[in-house]
């Protein structure tokens, strides 16, 4: 019969992160900020369109594309914020 010895350390050091992790973190934070500003802008455009129809024709065609982008960012937001917090606060 063979014995196996397993050692367990309680104070494990976090893995070292390279520069690329910080770059991805700031890219994701920038996307989050842009998504928030797009949300505010699209709400503003929707209110202005509802208030008056005096604008150019076809300006609201990009609103569904903005909505799809915001849905994608919203689904990724939880995992992105978790990764951002792991990188910035180890």
General description of the model:
The protein has about 90 residues and is mainly α. Helix content is about 65%, strand content about 0%. The longest helix has about 35 residues, at about 20-50. It is elongated. The two termini are about 40 Å apart. The mean pLDDT is about 75.
Strand content: under 5%
Main beta-sheet strand count, sense and barrel state: none
- How confident is the prediction overall: mean pLDDT? 75
Query: How big is the Rg?
Result: 23 Å
Instruction: Kindly state the percentage of residues in helix.
Output: 55-70%
Q: What is the H-and-E element order? A: HH
Give the overall shape, derived from the CA principal axes: elongated
Report the structural category: mainly alpha
Report the span from N to C terminus: 42 Å
Number of helices: 2
Q: Give the beta-strand count.
A: 0
Report the uncertain regions.
Answer: none
What are the defining features of this structure?
90 residues, 2 helices, 0% strand, mainly alpha
SSE blueprint and pairings:
Layout: H1 19-51, H2 63-88
Helix pairs in contact: 1-2
In short:
The chain has two helices and no strands. It has 90 residues and is mostly helical.
């Amino acid at each position: 019969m063979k014995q196996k010895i397993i050692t367990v350390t309680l104070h494990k050091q976090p893995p070292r992160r390279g520069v690329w992790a910080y770059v991805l973190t700031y890219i994701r934070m920038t996307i989050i900020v842009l998504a928030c500003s797009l949300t505010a802008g699209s709400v503003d455009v929707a209110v202005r369109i509802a208030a008056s129809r005096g604008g150019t024709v076809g300006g609201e065609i990009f609103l569904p594309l903005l909505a799809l982008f915001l849905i994608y960012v919203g689904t990724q937001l939880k995992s992105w914020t978790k990764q951002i917090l792991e990188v910035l606060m180890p």
